[in-house]
Amino acid sequence: MLASLTLLCLAPGAAPSPVGSSPEDPLPFVSSHVDVGKKGETLALRDLEGDGTLELLRVNARGLGVRALTAEGAYAENEVLLPWSTATTGWDLADLDGDGVTELLTVTDGEHLVRRRFTGEGWDDGDVLAGMPIYLPSGLSRVPFARDVDGDERLDLVLPGPGRFHILLNRSTVVEGDTQLGWASPLLVEFDPNVDYDFGDPMRLSSTFGQSIIVPFFTVEDVDGDGRQDLVSEVDDRISVHLARPEIDSLPTWELDLSGFKDAPTLRDVDLDNLLGSVSGFAQWRIADLDGVPPNDLVMGAEGEVRVYLGGGAKGASGDPDQVLKASGNVLRFFVRDVAGDPRPDLQIVRGERVSLSRLLKYLVLPGQLDFDVLTYENQDGALARRPTQRATIGLRVPRLITFFGEAEELGDRIEAQWKIPAIRIDWDRDGSSDDVIDEVDGELWLYRNAAPPEHRLEHVTMSRGIEGLVEQVVLRDTDRLGDGGLTVIDIETLDDFVGSPGAALRAAVAGRETALKMPLRSGVEDREFRAVDLNADGKTDILTVIEGDGTYRVEFLVQR
Known about the structure:
Blueprint: E1 17-18, E2 29-37, E3 42-46, E4 55-60, E5 63-67, E6 80-83, E7 89-94, E8 103-107, E9 112-116, E10 127-131, E11 140-142, E12 146-147, E13 156-161, E14 164-168, E15 173-175, E16 178-180, E17 187-190, E18 194-198, E19 210-214, E20 218-221, E21 230-235, E22 238-242, E23 254-257, E24 284-288, E25 297-302, E26 305-309, H1 312-315, E27 323-326, E28 330-337, E29 346-352, H2 357-362, E30 368-377, E31 379-380, E32 383-384, E33 390-398, H3 401-419, E34 424-426, E35 436-441, E36 444-448, H4 466-482, E37 487-491, H5 495-498, H6 502-510, E38 517-520, E39 526-533, E40 542-548, E41 552-560
Parallel strand pairs: 7-11, 33-37
Antiparallel strand pairs: 1-2, 2-41, 3-4, 4-5, 5-6, 7-8, 8-9, 9-10, 12-13, 13-14, 14-17, 15-16, 18-19, 20-21, 21-22, 22-23, 24-25, 25-26, 26-27, 28-29, 29-30, 30-33, 31-32, 34-35, 35-36, 36-38, 39-40, 40-41
C-alpha cells in the first residue's frame, strides 16, 4: 500500500489539523490528512517549485489538483485544479531538465506530448515536446513517458506508438546556465500489446465491462560490458538487443529466438511418475562476464543443458558454443552469480528430485521431505568447472497433509499478521544512523531511540529482479554460507519463522524498552503502514502513515515542528 504511495488511489481529503496534547506539553508534529478511496484516483508527492518542499498532488477524472504545504507544516485544504481537456488522457510526472522541478507530461489528443510547469497559482499552457501517433488506453492512465534509457542520469522520452515504442534520448545542452532540451532521432522498439476486453454479463444490470492492456516493456543494462547502457526488449520468445555504439542502435544489433526450446506444459506432458518434469527445462539466458575479457558473455540453458558463448554479449549466440554443460534430472532453474567470493561469477543449477503422484498422496497421511539440489560449477580462470564443485540441499519438510490442511489457514494468518506489523527503522535524531524505531501500539505512534537491531535478512528484499532475484536473496545466500554439503531445511509447519517480517523483528527488539514519544494517530480498521520522508526540506524526519478505513485509505502527514 504505502510502498507505492506515489501512486495511490484516493478520494477527496479532509481539512488539515494541527496536533498537540496541550500548550504545556505540545507534540512535535503538525498533522494533516486526506481520505483515500480505493479506486479511481491517484496521490503523489512531488517538488513542483524547486524549493525542496513536496506538494501534494491528486489525480482523478476531474483533473490534477495541487495542495501546497503551508509554513505551519499542514497541507492546505484548498487545491489548484487543472481539468483534463479529454476523457482519454495519458499523464506522467518527471524532471526532464534536472533542475529539481517536477513537471507534468500529458497526451490528450493521441499525438502530442505536452510539458507543463506549476507556477504556484496554476499550470502554464505548456510546450509540445514531441508529435507522433501515441498509443493510449481508454480513460485516464498514468503512462511512463519519461525514463533514463541510456543510463546518463537524464530522463529520456518513451512514447508507445502503434506496435512500437519511440524512444527519444535526451540530448539537452546547457547555455549560459540554462538547460535547453533536445532529443536524438527516435529509436524504434517493437512490442506486442496484450489487450483484454471484458464485456460483462448482459443478463445482469450490475455487470461491468472494461479494458485491460499489458504492454511488454524493455529493460536497460550494459549487455556487452563496454560501460554504456544498452536496450533489451522481449516480444513472445524473441529477445532483441540494441547496443549503444555509442548511440543505441535503432535496429536490433542481435536477436535471440527461444521458440525452439521447451514450451509451457500441456496436460499431455504431465508424467505422473515425475511431476516436476513437466515444469523443468524452460529456456533461460543470462549475460555475465565469465572470463574477464570484453565483451560480456552469453549463457543459455534449457532441458538440463547450459551453453556458454564467450563474447556473446556483443554478437549473441552465433557459431558453436565455447562450452556445453549437461545436468541430469529435473533442472528447474539456473543462476549466474558469485558463489566463491572472487570477482568472477559462477554457475548454480537448482534441480528437483522425482516426485510421483503416489508419493504426494502418501504425504496425506505421513510426513516427508522434498529435496532440491543446488549444484555450483565454479568459475575456474574464465571457464566453468565441468562437474559440480559444491553441492548443497534445500529440504522442504512436508507435514502430514491431512492434519496440515486444517492448520494451513492458521499458519497463513500468522504469516499475514507478521507482515502487517508496521514497525520501521528511521534516523529520528539525525545522527546518520537508522537505529531508531517507530511502531503503532493501540492506535498510537511509539518512538524508540537507538533501539533498532541489526538489519533483518529480509529487510531489503525486493521484487525488482523478479522471482529469481527473490530466490537468490532469501534462499541461495543461506546455501552459499553453509558451503559444500550444506543443508537448508524449510519446514512448512513453521514457515512463519522462516519468512518472519522485518517489522516483527523490530517490534520484538524494542519490547520492554522505554519510549521517547507517544502520540495518537488517525484511527482505522487495519493494515497501518509508515514511511519516513522530509516533506518540507528542513532536514528533519517527517512521517507518512496510512491505515485502511471503511472503504477508504486514511493518509496522515506528520511534519516535525
